[in-house]
Amino acid sequence: MKSPLRAARQRNLFESVDELPGGMRYAPEVISREEEEALLNKLLALPFKQFEFHGFLGKRRVVSFGWRYDFNGGGLGKAGAIPEFLLPVRERAAHFAGLQPSALEHVLLIEYAPGASIGWHKDRPAFDDVIGISLLSPCTFRLRRKARAKWDRRSFTAEPRSAYLLRGSSRTQWEHSIPPLDRLRYSITFRSMSSNQPARLTLTWNKTPRRLTFALRGIHRFARLLHMFNQCCIVAVLCALGAWSLSWRKVVRRGEFSLRFEVGDPLAQCRKDAL
Fold this sequence. Notes:
Layout: H1 4-15, E1 25-27, H2 33-43, E2 49-53, E3 56-65, E4 67-70, E5 75-78, H3 87-97, E6 106-112, E7 118-121, E8 127-135, E9 139-147, E10 150-158, E11 163-166, H4 169-172, E12 175-178, E13 185-193, H5 210-254, H6 266-274
Antiparallel strand pairs: 1-11, 2-3, 3-6, 4-5, 6-13, 7-12, 8-11, 8-13, 9-10, 9-12
């Protein structure tokens, strides 16, 4: 258990502007242990599904409300209404970020099993502010930004029941990731919608037929295999041409190959044809 002095030092470190990227905030103990336990009991009943990215399945499981983002090409689309038990948490997150609760239209819940992680990324431009709340287990929250030929890096430990805010440059210029975890962890991420997005019409299916899902996944994998086969064929042809060129160079150098041109007498050939 952490001593009060250590907790105070950590709190001052994470909330200082010098240590965190611009526009980012962190606060411990945004919710109580009792609230955390009640949330975990409710999360067990939610329809989590494995995260899917272009036909490939990740180790973490997700479920979205309000809006959802389809990484298989569907883009942003409407999702089911935010459950009532998440509304008090949304109010707490909105108060932390200085927003109205109604501004947080999207909520993403993630289950990180032991060994699960999330790679370097920025949230999609369709979203604006990002508020994350950690549950059950801590994680290392890493950030990086390209600085010429090097990376400017930051990291801190997101403790259970804590919250962070990504806004401004920390949201648009910095990438973030979470390395593989040792223990089960849940996160609740609230997002506000960007007002700079152009109007678009998105068609979504609430229930995608299972056969169609398998068919699309199979087509995608076949296309990848075909692409890899074409690359292998190109490499094989280039290797063959290189070997052929090298062998002919050796033959010419050894004098085993020569060209002989003979020029005959055209008049003699004409006389022969006339006989």
